[in-house]
Amino acid sequence: MPSTWVVVADSSAARVFVAGSPTGALQEVESYAHAEGRAHERDFRTDEPGSTHDSAGFGKHPMEPKVRPKEHEQIAFARFLAERIGQARISGDIERVILVAPPEFLGHLRGELDAEAKRIVGGTFHLNVVRMRPDEIRGHLPERLYSALPAR
Fold first, then answer.
1. 9, 81 in Cβ contact below 8 A?
2. Residues 39, 33: contact at Cβ < 8 Å?
3. pLDDT tens for residues 70-97?
4. Does domain 3-139 have CATH number 3.30.428.10?
């Protein structure tokens, strides 16, 4: 039977919960760890960035990557979670998902969802609660978790 998932995540961990009713307790059904998300930016640097010359040839400037290595790891983890949500949607395991994450990671996660998965997002919450107990997480969410949200 399709259900609503509550995906609670940050750059280094994610937990997937279901609630048996709109006001019910959260039950953890999946969890994921991403150790690279806890690393410091300095841990990703192996050498200095390359350099390039101006197009006119008058100066030499360091080349910086478009995405920092740590952010690259965050995006990779967000992509993994988005793919998992997409798989659950395709298999009919879920009909709606609620996303709970710190703002930056939530942005990455929403950006990685495909169009069909974006349609089943029933709410988003900018909270960093992934390491809390399920009852504590539930206490940070609205009393009626999903009953007021339109079915999609």
1. yes
2. no
3. 688 999 999 999 999 999 999 999 999 9
4. no
